[in-house]
Amino acid sequence: MGVVGAYGRMGRAICAAVDAADDLELVARIGSDDDLVGLDEADVAVDVTRPDQVLDTVRRAVELGAHVVVGTSGMDGGRLDEVRTMLGDHPQVGVLVAPNFSVGAVLAMRFAVQAARFFESVEVVEMHHPDKVDAPSGTARRTAQLV
To answer: Which residue ranges make up each domain of the chain?
Structure first.
């Protein structure tokens, strides 16, 4: 497995989890500004960088025949269309876009959709550490869209 964005908060957690797993091998720790050549040995690439970088990772991994997990929020329709186009020539490759790995956040979004039917208006309020790159987060923006 290769992790792109390996030195950020989420990337460090993913690398630690892979290192601790008996059945996984971390073959590349790639910083968000590093060359993607480290993905050459990976069967799976995990990208937790930024929306403006993720397509480079997906393109490189797909060309190499590696599956991709995108853990970056802010993947708009245009970027998703580009990913679909890349996959057209590589049907053996899978890409999973999971902008939030937190089960609690996913459940909160689903609950917000259900609860919104009973309220005239809603407000999405979130709190993060001061170094959060995208604020409001992609999860907050998506929750607002859903309700």
So the answer is: 2-97, 103-146
Q: How many C-beta atoms lie closer than 10 Å to residue 54's C-beta?
A: 24
Q: Which residues are catalytic?
A: 128, 132
Asked if residues 36 and 14 have their Cβ atoms less than 8 Å apart, the reply is no
Report the interhelical angle of 51-64 vs 77-88 (nearest 10°): 10
- What is d(CA 62, CA 92) in angstroms, rounded to the nearest whole number? 9
Give per-residue pLDDT as tens, 42-80: 999 999 998 889 999 999 999 999 999 999 877 888 999
Helix or strand or coil: residue 29?
strand
Q: pLDDT tens for residues 1-49?
A: 999 999 998 999 999 999 999 999 999 999 988 999 999 999 999 999 9
Which CATH number does 2-97 carry?
3.40.50.720
